Every structure is written in C-alpha cells, then in structure tokens.
Amino acid sequence: MKTIDIVVPCYNEEEVIRTFYGETKKVIGNIVDCIFRFIFIDDGSKDKTLDYIKEMAREDEAVKYISFSRNFGKEAGMYAGLRYSSGDYVIVMDADLQHPPYLIHKMIKEIENGYDCCAARRIKREDNEPLRNFFSKAYYKISNKLTNLELVQGAVDYRIMSRQMVDAVLELSEVQRFSKGIFEWVGFNTKWIPYDDVDRTMGETKWSFWGLLKYGMGGITAFSIVPLRVVTGMGFIISLFAFVYIAITLIKTFIYGIEVPGYVTLLSAVLFLGGIVELSLGIIGEYIGQIYMESKDRPIYLLKQTNIDADQVREKEGKK
Ligand code: UDP
Ligand code: MG
C-alpha cells in the first residue's frame, strides 16, 4: 500500500474549501490501493477557512492542517506542506477546484509507471484574454532563454512527486521561493498531462497584474545572472561607441577648430546614458534586494496552530 499526502495551500477559501474536500474525497475513494492524507495549509486566512478545515479534521482523521500566524504566500504554504508530508508520493494542488481532482487517477498511474513526477499543464482557450496570453508566451520565451530552465507553457502547481523528488525540492530552502523554477531545477523525470482550463467558480483569484509581474521577475533573477551580464555588455558597447565618437570629434576639432552648436547631441547623449545607468542600477538592485532578503535568513513561515503530532512539529520546526 502506497501512502499519498495531498498538500493544499489555502488562503481565504471559505466558499470552496468544503466542496474541494468533498470532490477530492470522491475521487480518492475510488482508489483503494493507496492510503491518502490531506495536509491543508491555512495561509493566515481572514475568513472561516480554518474553522471549516478544523471541522473536516474532526470528522476525518486523514485531515491534517497547519495554520500560519499570518499570510505568507502560496509558496510558503507549499513549502510547509511538503516539509510535513511523509507519504511515498505527495500531491500538491489548489483549493479552488481549478485543479480538477479526477486527474489524480492518471497522475498516480504515471508515477507508478516509473516517473518521478507527473504534473498538469493547463491548455488555455486562446480566444480568452489575448493580451494575457501574449504576455505569458513572451515571458516563457524570455525566461527560458535567460535561465537554462525549460519552464513549460501552462504548467501549474498541480503535481504528484516521489518522496525522493520532494526531499530534493526541500533541499532548496531559499526564502524567496519560485516553485515553478525549483521543480524544474531539481531535475527528475516529469510526465506532463494536459487538461482544459477551468474557471474559478467560487472565491476569487489572489493575483493582481503587478503581483504577477513581480513574481515573474523574481523567477528570472532567482535562476539566472544573465541580466547582470547584459548590463556589462551594454556598458561595453556604449563605451566602444563613446571612444569612437570621441576620436572622431577630436580629429574634427583639430582640423576644423571648435564647433559650438551641439546642444541637441549633448542633451540626447546625457539623457540616453542617464536612462541606461538607471536601468543598470535597477537590475543590480534587484539582485542586491534578493541577497539582502536571503541574508536575513528569516523563516519561510511561522506556524500558529496544527493538529500534527507535537513531536513531529518540534522536529520539523527545530531545524528550519
Ligand atoms: N493561496 C495561498 N496563499 C496566498 C494566495 C493563494 O495559499 O497568499 C492559495 C489559494 O488558496 C489557492 C492557490 O494558492 O489554493 C492558488 O491561488 P489562486 O487561485 O488565487 O491563484 P490562481 O489559480 O489564480 O493562479
Ligand atoms: Mg486558482
């Protein structure tokens, strides 16, 4: 009998959490040769999410929960869930039913067939939000060029992983987590299974445009220093142009004497260089920001309540 932990990060999901539990329970009820356990992570919800989870835990011994002291973000939730997991396989999925539970059958089959991981890939309806699709496609192209990782278009954080892979993911204990990158970085064999995009019917998404942009930028700087090299390259090219231009100007001055007009050229050059310098500082700043945040070595999350064994909690939290 294989044991499987289902890790579910939840933030303000009171509208959907019980339906999620019911639907998922139906699916795993048909899988008789595995023992399942839920690990819900209440990421500092301000609504009744935790109350509902506790209610489920009272009725079902297989429901475990960890509740954070405040909202730490989904990445922290996934990390905590993986740390407390102990199953032979671990499934990570969202609470909002956008990750269809029926895929669990297929995922288990693939991992039993020898894959280390089986992950879901969302197939978007193209007519839906063309601008967002464009940005998303562009992001994957740029990010894959810069980082050496093969991020898969439409990949979502819905996957089953072997114990070995989960342990590998946990080895990457950075505070600024970008799981899409981490899952790729650790390697192992992943089988991708496509599924049709599901709209969120209850509750609402926690992502804003700026939130996504920041997340995406963080993903690139976390896995690549190519942007820093681009800064060096820009500096090099501009210096080269400057030298040539200075030489030409000097020669012209020697031959024709000093030429006074040149206001526009001067202003353009100053503004252009100013822009490049600001941009370069910004890119360098992104990395310094990351170093700063990582060097503090703060915990990724803080636990407030849980129904997991006190011994296990002590062991896990002791060596965070
Ligand atoms: N989530 C979380 N902490 C947060 C934001 C989201 O644990 O700060 C959870 C949320 O409850 C859901 C999953 O992460 O189970 C995905 O969130 P959401 O549906 O908002 O993202 P989307 O599906 O739009 O990418
Ligand atoms: Mg969602």
Ligands present: uridine-5'-diphosphate, magnesium ion
Judged by helices, strands and strand pairing, the structural class is: alpha/beta
The largest β sheet comes out as: 8 strands, mixed
Strand segment tally: 8
* CATH evolutionary superfamily of the largest domain: Spore Coat Polysaccharide Biosynthesis Protein SpsA, Chain A
Distance N to C terminus: 30 Å
Please trace the helix and strand order, writing H or E for each element: EHEHEHEHEHEHHEHHHEH
Average of per-residue pLDDT values: 89
**Considering DSSP H and I runs of 4 or more, what fraction of the residues is helical?**
40-55%
Features:
320 residues; alpha/beta; 8-stranded mixed sheet; 8 strands; elongated; binds uridine-5'-diphosphate; binds magnesium ion
Description:
With 320 residues, the chain is an alpha/beta fold. It has two domains: 2-224 and 300-318, Spore Coat Polysaccharide Biosynthesis Protein SpsA, Chain A (Alpha-Beta Complex); 226-296. The chain is 52% helix and 17% strand. The chain has eleven helices and eight strands. The protein has helices at 17-29, 49-59, 74-84, 103-112, 130-147, 163-171, 179-185, 209-223, 226-256, 263-296, 310-318, and strands at residues 2-10, 34-42, 63-68, 89-92, 117-123, 155-162, 190-196, 303-306. Strands 7-5-6-4-1-2-3-8 form an eight-stranded mixed β-sheet, with helices on both faces. Strand 1, helix 1 and strand 2 form a beta-alpha-beta unit. Helix 5 runs parallel beside helix 8 and helix 9 (226-256) runs antiparallel to helix 10. The radius of gyration is 25 Å and the shape is elongated. The two termini are 30 Å apart. The model has no long low-confidence stretch (mean pLDDT 89). The structure holds uridine-5'-diphosphate and magnesium ion.
